[in-house]
Amino acid sequence: MKTQVQEPIIRRWNRGMQIVRAARGYSKAELGEVGLSDVRSARNHGIPVDPLRSTIYPENVDQLRGVAKTIIVSRKIDSRKPKTERQVSKKKTEVKRKRPTTKNKKSTRKKTSE
After folding, report:
1. Which residues pair with 10 in a beta bridge?
2. Does the pTM exceed 0.85?
3. Which of 21-44 are b and which e, b meaning 16 or more Cβ less than 10 Å from the residue's Cβ?
């Protein structure tokens, strides 16, 4: 289930002017502040994550709060669902392996010299 998320922002200073631009993704610290500690599940839900960033911007945290509520609620609902019989009992079927065959059988035979 992909969720619609706004792009995160980054602020930086260049020659005395503050520049605000779109970021590649949210930082792990911003995800942790919202309650999404698992980066993989955040990416699966369509939230871009930038592993190189470590800053926390309050605007990004506010954007994530609304999305995080739906993800956390859906995670709780999924954990309540009973497992199907197929998931509970997975039996491995044994497969007989064939003996390796050689490409040239003549070369494997011993030659008898007369």
Report:
1. 21
2. no
3. eebebbbbebbebbebeebeebee
Tell me whether residue 104 is exposed, middle or buried, using C-beta atoms within 10 angstroms of its C-beta: 0 to 12, 13 to 18, 19 or more: exposed
Checking phi first, is residue 36 left (phi over 0); if not, alpha (psi -120 to 50) or beta? beta
Number of helices and strands (H, E) in the chain? 4, 2
pLDDT tens-digit series, residues 85-99? 545 555 556 666 677
Number of neighbours of residue 62 by Cβ within 10 angstroms = 10
Q: What CA–CA distances, in Å, run from 65 to 27, 30, 47, 70, 86?
A: 14, 10, 12, 9, 36
- Beta bridge partners, 14, equal 17
- Picking from 93, 32, 18, 96, the residue whose alpha carbon sits closest to that of residue 65 is 32
Alpha helices in 1-114, H assignment, sequence order = 28-34, 39-44, 58-80, 85-88
Task: Name the residue with higher pLDDT: 78 or 31.
Answer: 31
